[in-house]
Design goal:
By secondary structure, this protein is α/β, with parallel strands linked by helices. It folds into 2 domains: 29 residues; 127 residues, Roll (CBS-domain), CATH 3.10.580.10. The protein is built from 6 helices and 9 strands, in the order E-E-H-E-H-E-E-H-H-E-E-H-E-E-H. It has a 4-stranded mixed beta sheet with strand order 3-4-5-6. Strands 7-8-9 form a 3-stranded mixed beta sheet. A two-stranded antiparallel sheet has the order 1-2. Helix 1 crosses helix 6. It starts with a strand and ends with a helix. 21% of the residues are buried.
């Protein structure tokens, strides 16, 4: 049993209000970060990851051209847009899963046929923990970053790992 911080009466763990004094207790059930790393993930914002400038292609761009662009720029994904709005993302995984050995035959087809449609996105002022959760649940390695609803960058799981590594180094210093 727990004790109400307002009146000292015993309360059941998880109760929304104290039966004795009727004070709200929701704040008591919110998980608290257990370490400085957890705290930095919960408090840190996407813009602190310095999202990479997005490489953007139109939905009708031939997938062969998109792959050449990805190789030239050494990037793992491109953001697919139509009329300036994000409609998809095309990544190395999409190339392997959807093109694979048929690449030569399919290279002239539009990237829209092979992209991941309606990708998860994250706003630049969202919390890093929120993006990490989306990536984990969805199995994504990249997330387009929006600012005011428009594409402004891309983050990867590697960017989050670098952030965590930097936070760990700061704790050890």
């Amino acid at each position: 049993m727990l004790t109400c911080p307002f009146c000292g009466e015993e309360i059941i763990e998880g109760a929304d209000t104290c039966d004795a004094c009727q004070q709200p207790l929701e704040f008591m059930s919110k998980p608290r970060p257990a370490s400085s790393i957890e705290r930095s993930l919960v408090k840190g914002r996407i813009h602190q990851l310095s999202p990479h400038a997005p490489t953007v292609v139109e939905a009708n761009t031939p997938v062969g051209d998109v792959l050449k662009l990805m190789v030239e720029r050494s990037i793992g994904c491109v953001v697919v847009v139509a009329a300036g709005d994000v409609v998809g993302i095309f990544s190395e995984r999409d190339a392997l899963d959807r093109l694979n050995v048929d690449f030569a035959r399919l290279s002239g087809r539009p990237v829209a046929e092979f992209m991941t449609s309606a990708p998860e996105t994250v706003e630049s002022d969202a919390r890093i923990a929120f993006a990490l959760h989306k990536m984990d649940v969805g199995g994504y390695r990249h997330l387009p970053v929006l600012t005011g609803g428009k594409i402004s960058g891309v983050i990867s799981v590697r960017d989050i790992l670098r952030y965590i590594t930097d936070e760990l180094a700061a704790v050890d210093a």
